[in-house]
UniProtKB/TrEMBL annotation:
The keyword Membrane belongs to this UniProt entry's keyword annotation: yes
PROSITE patterns xrefs: ABC_TM1 (PS50928)
Protein name, per record: Carbohydrate ABC transporter permease
Keyword tags: Cell membrane, Membrane, Transmembrane, Transmembrane helix, Transport
Keyword Amino-acid biosynthesis annotated: no
Protein family per UniProt: Belongs to the binding-protein-dependent transport system permease family.
GO cellular component, one term: plasma membrane
Domain of life: Bacteria
Cellular location(s): Cell membrane
Residues spanning the membrane: 28-50, 93-115, 124-148, 160-179, 260-279
Gene3D superfamilies given in the database record: MetI-like (1.10.3720.10)
Amino acid sequence: MKTAADNPVLNPGPVKQKKRGRIRISQILLHVTLVIGSIVMAGPFIWMALSSLKSFEQIFAVPPVWIPDPFVWSNFTDSLQAMPFGRAYFNSFYISTIVVVSQVLTCSMAAYAFAKLKFPGSKVLFIAFLATMMVPMQVTLIPLYIIMDNIGWVNTHLSIIVPNALFNAFGVFLLRQFMMGIPKEMEEAAVMDGANPLYIYAKIMLPLIKPALAAFAIFSFIGIWNNFIQPLVFLSDTTLFTVPLLLATFKGLYVTNWPLMMAGATISVVPVLIVYFFAQRQIIEGIALTGVKG
């Protein structure tokens, strides 16, 4: 004869314990997977940082040597002296700053138009706008070069700044989706008070989408800072080179000075790491709050 202790309905203790055990096992497996994934993702960066402190012989040692012995700290100073990295840092910084500010302005204005202003063909135009994200940049590189050559912008920073500053479909999509989640009542109340679309955009929309603006600005800065293909095609003067393009000059026809290249690459990622470290909360918040409405 079964007792109450044998009935899982009357005595749910064993069932709960089994569920808790399964949850703990699944959590352990999840954390183990995340740890392994993080190690795999961080592996190349760790190898780059360690290789920047090795001698030329240690980099090609077999079996591979992970910990440098001794630490060659002079690789960093030698890499900075071998190439005009100071000028390249200035070029990358001011180009990235101008492009980020311009993209935040233009993309937020376009996103407001697509999200809140109703005009004929807005949905079709927005779909066509998003379709450009599927076109690889390499496809438009030759036509863009011809345009830049005709207006005399080849071998100038304008060929990198202007095209990137005026167009970013991802930014428009990101900010538009965020604006779609803002209640219409706020806009209608402002219209009742006599506000025009420009006032609503500047005084209501922009303050409310600060998390999305911060996330997009960080993504834009990282993308422009790491941009390599456009400077490679449009720039030929060494004084105009950006950091990624200047790093490529360490690679010679027959011999590549890998320690200096790794040291320069490690230095080049410092600004990106600083930006991400101080703004990771805005990145997470901006992406988490951006909806998929519309």
